Amino acid sequence: MALLRVDNMTHYFGGLRAVHNYSLILEPGHIVGLIGPNGAGKTTIFNLISGIHTPTEGNIELEGHNLIGHHPHEIASMGLGRTFQNLLLWRHMTVLEHVKMACYSQLEYGIWGAFFGSRFCHQEEKRLTAKAMHLLETFDVAHFSSQLAVSLPYGAQRRVEMARAMATNPKVLFLDEPTAGMTPDELNRMISIIRKIHEEFDVAIFLIEHRLKFVMELCERIQTLVFGEVIAEGSPEETQNNPHVIEAYLGSEDIH
Amino acid sequence: MDLFLQNIVNGLQWGSFYALIALGYSMVYSILMLFNFAHGDVFMVGSYIGFGVATALLGFVALTGIPLPGWLILILTILFSMFITSFVGVFIERVGYRPLRDAPRASAAITGLMIGIILETGNLAILGARRLSFPQLIESVTYQFGGIYVTNKKILIVGVSLGLMYLLHRFIQKSKWGMAMRAMSFDFEVVPLMGVSINRIAPLTFAIGSALAAAAGILYGLAYPVLDPYMGILLGWKAFVAAILGGRGSILGAALAGFLLGFIEIFVAWVFPSTLRDVIAYSIILLILTFRPHGFFGQAHSTQLRL
Amino acid sequence: MQLEIKNLHVSYGKIRALHAIDFSIDKGEIVCIIGANGAGKSTTLRAISRLLPADRGSVMTFEGKNLLRYQPDKVVSQLGISHVPEGRRLFGNLTVMENLQLATFARRDKDSIARDVAQVFSIFPRLMERKSQMAGTLSGGEQQMLAVGRAYMSGRRLMLLDEPSMGLAPLLMLSMFEALKEINREGTTILLVEQNARLALKFAQRAYVLENGRLVLQGLSGELLNNPEVKKAYLGG
Amino acid sequence: MDIQDHTSQLHKKGFRARLQGFVATVPLIGWFLGFLGAVLVEYLLGDLISYYLYLPKIPVLFGLLSVLKKPLLIPGTIAYLILVYGLPILIIVKTLQKQANKLAGFLDKRPVSVAAFVHLGLFYGALHLWADMSDYRLLVLKLTMIAVMLTLSINVINGYMGEFSCSHPGFMALGAYTASTITLLFFANDKQFGDALLPETFGLYFFPLALIAGGIAAAIGALVIAIPSFRTRGDYLAIISLAFLFIVKSLIENLEFLGGPRGMSSQPHYSTLPMVFTVMVLCIWIINNFVRSTMGKALNAVRDNELAAEAMTVNTRKTKIITFMFGAFWAGVAGGLFAHVLRYVNPGSFGIQRLAEILAMVYFGGLNSVTGSIVGAVSINILSEALRPLEIYKWIIIPLLLILVMLFRPTGLIAFTEFKPKELMKPRQQFVEE
């Protein structure tokens, strides 16, 4: 059984068709990439699957559970973690608080425990802190734990965001342009980080990316999206040599 | 039936005040995405300035003996007061809003509220607690159409309001400043790229809104001649509600919602005991906003309070 | 040197987006800046049109005048630098004609405005047909035309273009660049930022390569097109 | 010349550094002891000292009031303050420095609750004595404590969750009227509800229940705002909450059995100082616990980015409902206390002016900060009492002050800090090490 399965998903914004007949099968442990020019609808697909928008048509299943109509937080608790293209860090929260916050659905204490500061509540908070610190160490940002996340260097912010996504205990991880704005050094580091989480946490990964080098190196399969439609799907080599992809994404060869 | 039509007329008059004030809120909102919470008090200040101008003109007539007719004094009063009050708006923009353009919106709201309190208290401090009575510049004449009674003042109030709204509409649709305002309401950030200075458009918007509020203040003074420093609170907040109800930033919406609010209040008071007016009017508003969270003409984008 | 930029630093809060950028453009040139997403291309343009404040120590001169002394609206109206922002940013609630008129807000020369409008319509005849339509209802290509037309109206010494090819079908892209060539022939200097590097390098005479807020390469377009590093990083092979 | 300047500067710096060093070595309990001592001095010798300083009576609010009325009394008042407050506090703090640190160290090893109990007991004792000297002081103190509760509870909504809610006076009114109805119905003989149903002696014990009932009424009212908040934020929510405020106010005006516009009066005298103090401490404690827990931090996540919060498994709807009801609950409780402090409420007490006052306190003190709320409530309250002699000019000075704060610190004086009682009560390290 596929871990994540999207069938014939179509979505309209107003009268505008943003995504057309999109399908995806993500097997456990796989890494799939989604490429395409700006405005092709890649992030829209992420938002549709993670429940931020509800698709006009189509079906989405995670481990056989239907996701349509669920709130994003429910989908996230079911095991779909994600990052955002523009990070969406919380402005006034520290790095540690970010990661702990992502454990919200794992909180065992109730509202009264929080009000009266029960012993159980304190134990839970300690447990989460330990878990969060462990994640932060994995992503090599533990030394920033008490700083505001937005005050960190860009690369560190990216890693904090990934740690935050991992704290939701995802089975599938969606990465929206994880290397945007990174130096080549940071890029290589990001590749090894993604490999590491892929192995260590046993998650399937679905990622949007602009840099071909990155996608080619990581992904087993690549989908190319143009104007909301998948025009090609296949291995990195196939994609690289597909004339449609070259025309649409790399810029057509003959101008002037 | 007659009573119904009579209430329509009353609603039109009552709605005129709301609509004129709501326009000021809405214009400022549409370009700056901020509500000018001092606007209700600008209405009050406008009314007092109108009182001052009218008194001065009457004094001038009495001194020089030049027999100016009442209607001319009224027109002059409205024009002068609108002009003077517009500077109050410019001042508020300069002091309270320009420095806070990049600050959290809540801070600007607080500043606006506080400027409002200062205007109220300042007025109280200068003029004292006695209530002033607005000079009656024109004789009241009552006309009868079938079973409805209409005074010339009512006609004047509704007429002047509609006229001003039409002028505003023309200004916004046809002039280049109006065009710049519309552009600013759509996309604030790139307006400077058109060679348009935000620091000129913003004060202009405040000035126009304040001038309209001043007109409303004088018309209000004609209908209900007793002025007091807190008159802006009651009408101002309700007009603010109307501005929101119309859809924030929508000029047409603000005017229509102003009249709608006027009708709701008049008709509620007609059908129910008048003490229930606020309860029912606000409950209707609450229901409308719960089911149409962006008002009648508002765009459905959620703006968060920046912190 | 029409535009000369030295040691330009720009920061968003604590994060520095541009590090010591140096470059210059001659009058009448077409120059492009290429680079990956988030490399700082748009930031550079926004700094030139003063939408973003430059950090201390930055120097920008345009035709001998200190650019840093000008407010963003004066950059347009007094220096004649127009800017087509990323994503076009048209005023969707204004008609096509109004969008063009607004761009002449600060201009006093009534007659030449009419002539310029006619010129825009002759470059982009499609806009003529859509004259009284709301800009928000235009198709992507028409929007891009209007964005360029609007910039043409507001200032013509230097035109800054942010990704003019974004979201355009290949054929439209070609005609857009044709139009830009024409505007350039009339004497407008063009500085454009492109993600589609191949296209940009074919169009421009010179190019700068931006990586993570630093200029890493510069040269004539032809040279860069054949540069193996550029090929690998930006031309997809 | 140069050298002299230099040395005098050095000396100055030395003095300031010494002062700072001294202040830093005194634990909180030391200051409380000092305050208690000063109050004792005033209690025993206040009348005498003020008589010899030609003051008409002991300066009630640190002389702030009388000074504005009669500037001639300024020197006397300053002398009084130095004699009664400045000197005793300094002497006590200095002499008991070691003992206080030892005591703080001892308490630090006990559970937090024990330490808190001792601190609060001491503080309350001092406040009680202080308020005992004048009815006016007592009233101001109670109202200030209620203001602290109001400010904190609105901070939960406006600061921690970042909504601009305007309905706080409405919540307060719900609490005030509910609690008053209960106490008047059961424990008081009055015109509206007739004779007491239960013996009056039970009253004080049932009063907390009445307060809770008031809080619950307010919390239920808050649902009217919480539910629309799922779909809308910012201005529209502000207006919905404003409409709610107007509805509550004019509804009460129309309900004859609640006294209509005349209001309700002769509530039993239940809001005693220990009662108000205890409820306020509970309020601070519970709110502080909540906002420091991960569940409470969800409010910040919703404020800073709702989308990211949802994607990180935060149930934003539940969070919003909890926040509005929680904030409203404490406003209701504060309203109940308020009604029993003044022993008279009418709908006019819960209008726009009250809203402006509450907003002023929270934005002055600082958003997202318990300390800020306490500082804001206390300072605005004391200021507005102190400026009372200026009559209406008070309402020019306070708004101006607030505008200045907004211009220079748009989120308030002490914003975005955590309130950590345990840290506060710790012995001061430097001294212990020596």
The tally of beta strands of chain B, per DSSP, is 4
How many extended strands of chain D? 2
Order of secondary-structure elements of chain D: HHHHHHHHHHEHHHHEHHHHH
Sheet with most strands: strand arrangement of chain D: 1-2
Order of strands in the sheet with most strands of chain B: 1-4
User: Any idea of the CATH class of chain B?
Assistant: Mainly Alpha
Low-confidence stretches of chain B: 300-307
Total discrete domains of chain B: 1
Largest sheet: number of strands, sense, barrel closure of chain D: 2 strands, antiparallel
Key structural traits:
heterotetramer; A: about 260 residues; alpha/beta; six-stranded mixed beta sheet; four-stranded antiparallel beta sheet; B: about 300 residues; mainly alpha; ABC transporter involved in vitamin B12 uptake, BtuC; two-stranded antiparallel sheet; 10 helices; globular
Outline:
Chain B contains ten helices and four strands.
How would you summarize the topology of this molecule?
The complex is a heterotetramer of chains A (about 260), B (about 300), C (about 240) and D (about 425).
Chain B: H1 2-32, H2 39-64, H3 70-97, H4 105-127, E1 132-133, E2 142-145, E3 148-151, H5 152-174, H6 176-186, H7 198-223, E4 226-227, H8 231-245, H9 251-271, H10 277-291
Antiparallel strand pairs in B: 1-4, 2-3
Chain C: E1 3-12, E2 15-25, E3 30-35, H1 41-48, E4 59-62, E5 65-66, H2 72-77, E6 81-84, H3 96-102, H4 110-123, H5 125-129, H6 140-154, E7 158-162, H7 170-185, E8 189-194, H8 197-203, E9 206-211, E10 214-220, H9 221-226, H10 228-234
Parallel strand pairs in C: 3-8, 3-9, 6-7, 7-8
Antiparallel strand pairs in C: 1-2, 1-4, 4-5, 9-10
Helix pairs in contact in C: 3-6, 6-7
Chain D: H1 2-24, H2 28-52, H3 64-69, H4 74-95, H5 97-109, H6 112-132, H7 135-160, H8 168-187, H9 203-226, H10 234-254, E1 264-265, H11 273-292, H12 294-304, H13 306-311, H14 316-342, E2 344-345, H15 352-365, H16 370-386, H17 394-408, H18 421-425, H19 429-433
Antiparallel strand pairs in D: 1-2
Provide a descriptive summary of the structure in words:
The complex is a heterotetramer of chains A (256), B (307), C (237) and D (434). Helices cover 38% and strands 23% of the residues of chain A. With 256 residues, chain A is an alpha/beta fold. The longest helix of chain A is centred in the middle third of the chain and has 20 residues, at 119-138. The radius of gyration of chain A is 19 Å and the shape is globular. Chain B has one domain (2-302): Orthogonal Bundle (ABC transporter involved in vitamin B12 uptake, BtuC), CATH 1.10.3470. Chain C is α/β, with parallel strands linked by helices. Chain C has a domain at 3-84 and 156-234: Rossmann fold (3-Layer(aba) Sandwich), CATH 3.40.50.300. Chain C is built from ten helices and ten strands. The longest helix of chain C has 16 residues, at 170-185. Chain C is globular, with a radius of gyration of 17 Å. The model of chain C has no long low-confidence stretch (mean pLDDT 89). Chains in contact: A-C, A-D, B-C, B-D. Chains B and D meet through α4, α8 and α10 of B and α10, α15 and α17 of D.
